Amino acid sequence: GAVVSQHPSRVICKSGTSVKIECRSLDFQATTMFWYRQFPKQSLMLMATSNEGSKATYEQGVEKDKFLINHASLTLSTLTVTSAHPEDSSFYICSASQQGARETQYFGPGTRLLVL
Amino acid sequence: GENVEQHPSTLSVQEGDSAVIKCTYSDSASNYFPWYKQELGKRPQLIIDIRSNVGEKKDQRIAVTLNKTAKHFSLHITETQPEDSAVYFCAANIAGNTPLVFGKGTRLSVIA
Q1: Who among B34, B99, B104 is closest to A34 (CB)?
Q2: Is the dihedral of CA A75, A38, A109, B38 positive or negative?
């Protein structure tokens, strides 16, 4: 199947700092990538849909100025958590779908963020 | 928008028994229904999916059934093994790069 990578896998930062998470589709082109957040023992909650070359679409309740998304190429989307606070600590996972096989989404390995 | 309900939230079975997880969806336009398995601290892995033009799909010990009229779909795991223990998520969407809407997950424990 298609491979999606994420970097970093784990990050610890101080309150008030910004953290950038990268999501890459390694062996396919993804016009659309999705960013999810997962709190412990909970389901995946969609944060935003990232479209290559255009602005991301954010879900209700997700602050676009706090969670900056850039999808500059067909293989890379980035999520920047700005001015992180402890409540932003979570597991962030991206997914991507292949052009021509639009239903199946492949997930990255996730990034565990801990804000102190 | 789409809403996906999943039951049960936890399920314990003896090794070798079958496990069934059920989901319902609200949007009759949804036409793609994947199931993901997530082990602790890892990414969700697609284990099987079904599209609305079929009613059942099987892959070795795993099968999924879909009832479009009732808007529900189910995951069936036969001859369960300890390595099947994980959290399983159902999801639904309208095909075409639309976001998946996930159920809340089922924590399956297979007891040896």
Answers
A1: B99
A2: negative
pLDDT at B69 over 90: yes
Q: A97 in contact with B at a CB cutoff of 8 Å?
A: yes
Choose among A44, A95, A102: nearest Cβ to B96: A102
Strand residue runs (E) in chain A = 4-7, 10-13, 19-25, 32-38, 45-51, 57-58, 67-73, 76-81, 90-98, 101-107, 111-115
Question: Taking chain A (116 residues) in consecutive chunks of 10 residues, what is each chunk's mean pLDDT?
Answer: 91 97 92 91 91 88 94 92 96 85 81 97
Q: Nearest CA to B91 among A46, A15, A10?
A: A46
SS3 state at B83: helix
